[in-house]
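Budget justification, computational time. The allocation requested in the original proposal was used primarily to generate structure tokens for proteins on the priority list. As evidence of use, we reproduce two of the resulting records. The first is shown immediately below.
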Amino acid sequence: MGNMPANLESSADVAVENDYDSFAEAYAAENDSSLVNAYYARPAILDLAGDVAGRRILDAGCGAGAVSAALRDRGAVVTGFDRSARMVELARQRLGADTDLRVADITRPLPYPDGAFDDVVAALVLHYLEDWTGPLAELRRVLKPGGRLIVVVNHPIILKMAHRESDYFATTKWSDEYDFNGRKAVLTYWHRPLHAMTDAFTAAGFRTAVISEPPPAPEAHELFPDEMARFPSGAFLSFLFFVLEAA
């Protein structure tokens, strides 16, 4: 989960817990209608997923369920989990009792059998983690052979653009302050260079099929004219999108 960086403060020694329980409602309200989430990340995910009718999809880090709902509307059989119990409650309110939603931590063994899913979506999740080894192994385990993992993470250029003195090639912890629908929150991420991401995917048994830097949805220009006026090309960099195939 995420938003466009507003007031970056990069620091390797700032310890901030990503406590979504404390601002879940505010984040969910922002997520439903913001440029970065509703008109950039979510449309890009759906475009990369393509025809999902009848496919079993795990939404890893489902938050309040916006991506899950969009996938279900397109005919997918959706399952989701999130570390935040409050986010899972909000997802249940959105999706109803018939959707399998659980509180689970991606850094621990997941409560699903081997090969249970055709696709997994991990949107704005991995960039909170220093070590991707265990989480990627679990996501590979629950995917059937040939299944797809759609990953969305902070674009690795963002930290360097905001802080020229930072080392692009270092795995670096940094924090950023946000305003989610009037509620202040601080999130802490782990920056890693592009090659470290793709190396981790390969080591976990994935083949990188797509790397995407998509533009926002066309209607973003009409809905957010002031924000989009900052980008003469009609596009901006905030996240990086991958489609991986399980070997």
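The second record produced under the same allocation is shown here.
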Amino acid sequence: MIETSSGRHRPWMAGPGRPWMTYGLIVSCCLIFVLGPASGLNPGYGSGGRLVEAQSTYFERWGVVPSALWSGDPDQPLAPLTALFVHGNWLHLLGNMLFLYVFGAMTEERMGRFQFAVFYLATGYLALLGYAAAHADSAQSLVGASGAISGVLGAFLWLFPRARVTSLFPFLLFLPLRFPAWAVLIFWVALQWLAARQADDRPGVAYLAHLVGFTLGFLYAWARFGRRARVGGAARPSEGESQP
């Protein structure tokens, strides 16, 4: 659930301005995942060792391999873009799509569909590029929309500072509790920063890409919209489901 500080709600499906771009991105990622080897649902990739080999080849082909990205191969500049639509497993996919659905809809409404699409792709591309630059010698593939979605979270924090979300936290026995969105997102950033500091010897974990994406998204919203676009207590609210 997301609401503004006024406490009023407006279901997304009730209004004419539906977030079609957000829906399109979610459908695209889900469809690509189901058809690919990571889902385990496509019999064309086989099973057992054959499936594992197919997954590895698939991730290297469509994901970002930092050492290959800087090799001069003319196909590599597209890797950070294709990697945004590839996910490693069901949990990876569902977690990313949940956050995209919750925070992407309101952000798209504020930015507009075309601007949101360009913002999403550009932020995700730059986030993965930043990660690859920091781990230029790594041969481990990196996939997922986390960098782009992190950018959406950063923009959301600037645009909707007074929104509130209902969240489930494992260490609080999964009790549904309401928090200001800014508190949830800052807590998320802090976790990413701590994890990134502990993951220097594990370049396959993309915490750095999350931080780069979040920072870029926040700075873009600040530079592009300024204070005039921020939603306070009197602005239109929206509704969704969130379980960070």
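A brief technical remark on that second record: Residues 1-16, 168-175, 199-204, 233-244 have pLDDT under 50 and may be disordered.
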